[in-house]
Amino acid sequence: MTKTWKLTVAAALMGLALAAAPAVASDSAKPSSGPAGAAVAQQDHGASTGAHVAEVVGEAAHGGEHKGGFPPFNPATFGSQLAWLAVSFGVLYLLMSRVTLPRIGRILEERHDRIARDLAEASQRRAESEAAQIAYEKALTEARGKANAIAGEARNRLNAETETNRKSLEAALTVKLEEAEARISSTKTDALSHVRGIAVDTAQTIVNTLVGTTPGQQDTESAVDQVLSRKAA
Amino acid sequence: MAFRLGSEFVAGVLVGALIGWGIDTVFDVAPWGMLVFTLVGFGAGVMNMLRAAGETGKKSGPKA
Amino acid sequence: MNIDPIHQFEVQRYADLLRVSGVSFSFTNASAFMIGIVGAIFLFLTFATRGRTLVPGRMQSVAEMSYEFIAKMVRDSAGNEGMVFFPLVFSLFMFVFVANVIGLVPYTFTITAHIIVTAALALLVIGTVVIYGFWRHGTHFLHLFVPSGVPSFLLPFVVLIEVVSFLSRPISLSLRLFANMLAGHIALKVFAFFVVGLSSAGIAGMFGATLPFFMIVALTALELLVAVLQAYVFAVLTSIYLNDAVHPGH
């Protein structure tokens, strides 16, 4: 609601501006603006508005301090406003372009540089830490390899030792076995050799018991040998 | 922004009418300068409006 | 209480300094506000950036934001070559912005509600466009008025329209700002009269006055928005027009 209202006011003011603009233009073109202002007033459709503005302009042209009328369109104030606007805006432009903007720009640039520098530093640090990480991992791998090697070596050595121990033990056992076997066989031979004597003795005793006479040592022995050899064969 | 478009249009017509009025006064061809240049101003106002609408529209897009 | 809604736009003479053939260059309330605005802008921006701290405080942030805001606006519209106009656009924006906002404070004077001020600023912009355009591009600048791809029998007409369109720019630029400021202030004042007039008419009038009172509150908020928006629009259009000076022939 307020918007449309405002637009209406604005439109009315624009119309006013349209009415005033030629009046002002003619006023500045011809210092004696009475007839020109009247001509404008006649030409304008809104005769009352035009006449009003022309009146104000006419009044202003006489250099009189005006009361009433519409101040924003009062040309009497234009000169002063323009002059002061030129001075103040000129000063503002100079201050901004020479002092303030370079100042803010420098602050921003410094921050920009600082951020860029910090970023560069950070990325360098990251690269360093990444390198350290890689080195660490490499060392770790190496250590692990070394440990593996040592362990393998130890295992091999132990294996070898066990093997030698086993072999020597086996050898000793074999020796002992052979000794035992030799002993058994010698005992066996021994025993077997005793068997002949016992057989001879037994044969002599048996014959003596059966027959009553003891056969000759020589004969008995040969008979026993005969039997033994037959048995062995 | 509707007000912006309106003022663009009004300004176009205004300048056209002003030029026409100036030509009428200088060359004394009473209604014709005003007539023709108000029409031209109308065209310029429409053009202004289209351009302003385009600027508002493509503000988000990239510009040369 | 002055019941004239136009009184607020009255230029009051403080000191007569110079008079040339009936035109007065006297020091007025308008002059005082112009100088005050310039002083306020410069002092604020200087004070805000006094620390030059790496991590900005609140005020320094405002100063930096305004800088980057306008810089981006100019760069977006007119490209990097357009950045020569950055101080101009920045000054214009700050001047109009501060003038608009200061004008909303009661009892102050709104310099942007005077057509001569807005017209001067708009003519400054267009003058810059024309002078820089010719200085930089010579007659090539005139290509601005000759759009490409138009049939030759239409060309004179189109060029005429383009010229009028170009001439209408300062008018629309100045009228828009002026009319917005003027209309807003008159509306505020009119509602204020309702409040004063009704509340002086007894108890019932007091109650009746609440509606326009809230209207004033709402309107003030709206006007603040308009003040900022119009300064922004002025600066944006300035950079768009300056783009024509940098890159004619679109």
What features would you describe in this structure?
- The complex is a heterotrimer of chains A (233), B (64) and C (250).
- Chain A is mainly α.
- Among the domains of chain A are: 1-73, no CATH class; 195-232, no CATH class.
- Chain A contains five helices and no strands.
- The longest helix of chain A is centred in the middle third of the chain and has 134 residues, at 78-211.
- In chain A, 20% of the residues are buried.
- Chain B has one domain (2-48).
- In chain B, helix 1 runs antiparallel to helix 2.
- The model of chain B is unreliable at 59-64 (pLDDT under 50).
- Chain C is mostly helical and 250 residues long.
- Chain C has one domain (7-246).
- Chain C is 68% helix and 4% strand.
- Chain C has helices at 29-48, 58-78, 86-103, 115-137, 155-199, 202-208, 210-246, and strands spanning 13-15, 19-20, 23-24, 27-28.
- In chain C, strands 1-4 form a two-stranded antiparallel ribbon. A two-stranded antiparallel ribbon of chain C has the order 2-3.
- Chain C is globular, with a radius of gyration of 22 Å.
- Chain C starts with 12 loop residues before the first strand and ends with a helix.
- The mean pLDDT of chain C is 83.
- The interface between A and C is large, with 51 and 62 residues.
